[in-house]
Amino acid sequence: xxxxxxVQILSQAGISEVPSQYxxxxxxxxxxxxxxxxxxSCSNVPAIDxxxxxxxxxxxxxxxCREWGAFHVINHGVPTKLMDDLRRVCLSFFNDFPxxxxxxxxxxxxSAASQGYGSRMLVxxxxxxxxxxxxxxxHHTLPLSRRNPSFWPHFPPEYRTLVADYSxxxxxxxxxxxxxxxxxxxxxxxxxxxxxxxxxxxxxxxxYPPCPQPELTxxxxxxxxxxxxxxxxxxxxxxxxxxxxxxWLTVQPLPDAILxxxxxxxxxxxxGKYRSSVHRAVTNASKARLSVACFHDPAKEVRVSxxxxxxxxxxxxxxxxxxxxxxxxxxxSKGPEGKRNLDALLLDT
Length: 349
Hints:
Oligomer: single chain
Strand order of the largest sheet: 1-2-10-7-12-5-4-3
Number of helices: 10
Number of domains: 1
Order of helices and strands: HHEHEHHEEHHEEEEEEHEEEEHH
CATH class: Mainly Beta
Distance between the termini: 40 Å
CATH superfamily: B-lactam Antibiotic, Isopenicillin N Synthase, Chain
Number of strands: 14
Largest sheet: 8 strands, mixed
């Protein structure tokens, strides 16, 4: 899997055409309409102030989850300096150090979701897999038994401490948000968290180098995240898009905000009342982009199913239950492509 060359090397080589394995099929490329939309501010992606009265916050979350599956949070309690410092050291890792040093932290070959520095995430026996125009570093951060900072870069010197501190802040915010999301459905506050169980948290820093043919490529193909909830920060370049009512809309970076993306297991637990967010990353020709996503997933052995309080004779389950590890295996072997793995669980009701 990680025999793939780092995208940053291709970008820095000054190529004028992207290699064929990065060219998206025509149906996945940016259309003239989506090219226009990428330049428009997606100002109506909700921004929710967590310092407001709780009932107001819950109402705003209910609407955002129903309509979008994605929203910004502000006044969220995560120190702005920590967010800025994390972005700084992640960008420094990609930009300021020799490739030979970075490759010492390379992902393990032929292993899905292995920790480390990589470019290709999917495991496929086929040679026709289209690659994303992206390099990344994936950190296993929770539970603490998985957290081994010796697998993380030792440069810049504060890198490991910042990732650990950020992980600790993110788990607090994730739990707070899932409680509010549960309450917005009239459920007990711990409902979704109880269904997920102990959180398995990964933090992935994604680096999208300038691309000579952005109209042919994607930084990250269309997908919904497989776990329960994703918390994402990005720089000021922009390039994240969410699918809303059949159109791709660009999420403009909002200073000091954290973007919340509902993921597939939350859609299952809420019995489809809240949908996971389909999103992708586009590329540009002039400026590198950085984002840092923090994923919160169930353990592989957890069986996920619709919450019993949301299932009745008049509201039957819309999804079959699944062991989360089986879902992950399907996601990495078949590819995410929108929501096809989640859609395979839909029941005829």
